[in-house]
Amino acid sequence: MGAMSIQIAVCMAAFTLSPADEVTVDQVDLVEVNHFYDDQGRLVFDQVIYFDWSAQQGRYQVRDWRLLKTQTQVPLRDWREGGYVSEWEDFKQRNGLRRVKSKSVRETWTQYDPELVEREFLAQEKRAELTRIPVASRPHASRNHSRSRGPTLPRTQPDDYQTATAP
Question: Is the pTM of this model over 0.85?
Fold first, then answer.
């Protein structure tokens, strides 16, 4: 029994000595999950677009976007804190762990790229963008991250998404 206690103590020590993954957290007003189709109705790509409300312009403006590569990027309803949340390893910034919280979510199916159209209203270089992930918080390639599965929140039905309205 003593050897088993020692093994448990060693395992617990190893977990407490391992640095915890730092998560870069952003808050946006609206997340759009967009499915872009060509003229023949074939899926070209899926993307997630992050918007902030501009009181000055009286409209949502694109802050940033990501190609949809994993289901953990799709926001889930956060029943504890309200709104929606997604968490994933952000490939655009070398796989740093990112969490985005939003007030609203909408899902669209289009034959145009809404992010590209939005560049007419706010140039890409003038966008606020999501927070840059610090180099120190980027996970090592060999580590296994239990958080990469995303948040453990109940999944909503597509019709449970809130309609985007001004805050």
Answer: no
